Amino acid sequence: MKNGTVSVFGEAIERTAKERAHLIRLLQDSQKEYLSHVEKVSETQWNWKPGQDRWSVGETAEHILLTEGRLFSAMERALAASPNPDSEKSTAGKAELLERALLDRRHKAVSPESIRPQGLSKVIRRFKEARAKTIKFVQDTQLPLEEHNSEHPFPVFKTLNAYQWLLYIPLHNLRHNQQIAEVKATPGYPR
User: Fold this and answer.
1) Quick one: CA torsion of 36, 37, 40, 43, rounded to 10 degrees?
2) What single string gives the DSSP state of each residue in 14-29?
3) Taking the model in full, what pTM does it have?
4) Residues in CB range of 187: below 8 A, 6 or more apart
5) End-to-end distance of the chain based on CA atoms, in angstroms?
6) Distance of CA 112 to the CA centre of its chain
7) Which helix (H) or strand (E) holds 47?
8) Which helix (H) or strand (E) segment is 161 a member of?
9) How far is CA 18 from CA 33, 99, 171, in A?
10) pLDDT tens for residues 90-120?
11) What's the rounded Cα separation, in Å, for the pair 163 and 156?
12) For the ranges 7-21, 75-89, 164-178, which has the lowest average pLDDT?
């Protein structure tokens, strides 16, 4: 209970309903955009790279898939940890930081080796399955997501709560949807 209001999903019901709706909308919108970028590309378009040090549409699409599973696991690790009494303090402003930082493609990040593309087949099918699992969890959970934290490997984010780990999923997806669009807009991209 916080400020005399019943707590569900980490904060007061009014705030939580808005957060849940925002998160579901981001998950659905980023999925729709992702699929619009990748479902109808040819194998040549899927594999075309705008440069040696840049990813193809397929590599970027696979990275999004691999990262979704890793971020969902980070959220699960946060939930497995005991509630953090300092959670509000240690994660304050992080949702807003995630929304700014992840959607800003001017700042590049090097992904960990474990979520770099390895040429997996059936990427689109596996993406849809992973996203359905994430959306179902967000729709169904009554867990206090904002009370459970785990550490992020990038110092700029440091500590994130379980809600923020979930928020990271569609924001990361949207960031890389921009990257796919950039590849497709590059001169020389096969038409």
Assistant:
1) -160
2) HHHHHHHHHHHHHHHH
3) 0.84
4) none
5) 57
6) 15
7) helix 43-47
8) strand 159-161
9) 22, 16, 17
10) 999 999 999 999 999 998 888 888 888 877 7
11) 17
12) 7-21
- Contact assessment for residue 128 and residue 122, using Cβ atoms and an 8 Å cutoff: no
Is pLDDT at 62 greater than 50 in this prediction? Answer: yes
Q: Are strands 149-151 and 159-161 parallel, antiparallel or unpaired?
A: antiparallel
With cut-offs at 50, 70 and 90, classify the pLDDT of residue 1: very low
- DSSP code, position 145: G
Task: List the structure tokens of 66.
Answer: 């691999």
Burial 170-180 (b: 16+ CB within 10 A, else e): bbbbbbbbebb
Domains of the chain and any CATH numbers:
7-185 (1.20.120.450)
Q: Name the residue with higher pLDDT: 12 or 100.
A: 100
Instruction: Give dist(CA 64, CA 71) in Å, integer.
Output: 10
Tokens representing 120? 């997996």
How is residue 134 written in tokens? 């994430």
Mean pLDDT, residues 56-82 taken together = 96
The rounded radius of gyration (Å) of the Cα atoms in the chain is 18
Does the pLDDT at position 45 exceed 90?
A: yes
State CA 154 to chain mean position distance. 15
